[in-house]
Records
---
Amino acid sequence: GQNIDQPTEMTATEGAIVQINCTYQTSGFNGLFWYQQHAGEAPTFLSYNVLDGLEEKGRFSSFLSRSKGYSYLLLKELQMKDSASYLCAPREAAGNKLTFGGGTRVLVKP
Amino acid sequence: DTEVTQTPKHLVMGMTNKKSLKCEQHMGHRAMYWYKQKAKKPPELMFVYSYEKLSINESVPSRFSPECPNSSLLNLHLHALQPEDSALYLCASSLPSGQGTGELFFGEGSRLTVL
């Protein structure tokens, strides 16, 4: 089974930086995904890490440490439209099982 | 075409009804998924199909019956549901594990209300 832990809620100011941490324990490991979900909408893919280190994609970056079972998503130059839930999702080694953490609701204030 | 299409968008049914949710993708993905999402909760995995065969069933009650008639279609048959089954049902597809990143592409969901 999987145990995924991320903060429930974070608040930040427009233009600032926010870091969302995720710790996980899985039955084997085959990569970790971050998804964004706006209220009432489907989740959309943000980033994927399978090796240790930092992946940068515009204003969003994601970091992975497999030995620590730890990842973070970094959101830079926050915009109001970044207000959403951010879901950490490690994938198990066998098959296509992707399990989501509880999600972190980010509120961006002016 | 990078879309996953789900129908219907909204469904209201009684506890004795039989209905189906449908999902379609034309991205050549051979893995398809059903997730259930309650308000303010993350999506919960229900079923995974890989190459049209059921590969994961997360101990879902038998009143939910999945079907994958071909590589583009995924159905979820509903029968004798309970009010607590009311939720957003999300379909997703991906390349199978080991091919590409395997990111999931989600449909917009079918919002189900059971009376």
---
Amino acid sequence: DAGVIQSPRHEVTEMGQEVTLRCKPISGHDYLFWYRQTMMRGLELLIYFNNNVPIDDSGMPEDRFSAKMPNASFSTLKIQPSEPRDSAVYFCASSLSIYGYTFGSGTRLTVV
Amino acid sequence: AQTVTQSQPEMSVQEAETVTLSCTYDTSENNYYLFWYKQPPSRQMILVIRQEAYKQQNATENRFSVNFQKAAKSFSLKISDSQLGDTAMYFCAVLETGSARQLTFGSGTQLTVLP
């Protein structure tokens, strides 16, 4: 298995632009998670899905952030409009059992 | 809600020596899982070791072992025979087995292995 695949690996965008981050979970995993990592706040859970259905989005910072999972093999995290304070590493992770998550390599987002 | 505390922001150890990273947590659940993840400069999050709270025996994985003290809510990681490749940020995390599947992380400990 190729693991959790995230794209792009790096993204630099201008303030106000729309940004879309992509994730392909491990085949067969029924949970998908989006985390954000910053120096100030560490690793924060933004939202997670179970069987493609959003279960808890209480970590999504504000309405500028949205996430979708149209099918079991694909999810997106969109920021519109982006702001400099959104600069962070965004991780996607998936899991099947209780035995921990498998993380993707992350997307480093820089908003200038 | 669960919380995880790692009180050592940075640590260093000489190559081939042993080092212990501390972690305490709080949870209202009786059933939960504990994890240590490693994040090297490549930023990949790598699972190092996991512990089921209902098991009294401490988990081991090659050079990595834990000291799990359930009553004290303590979950330390011991790295034996440290290698240069162990240099990384180490995160402790807790996962409750209830309806919420959220993995909650500590703030991390930056470990540097010195040659």
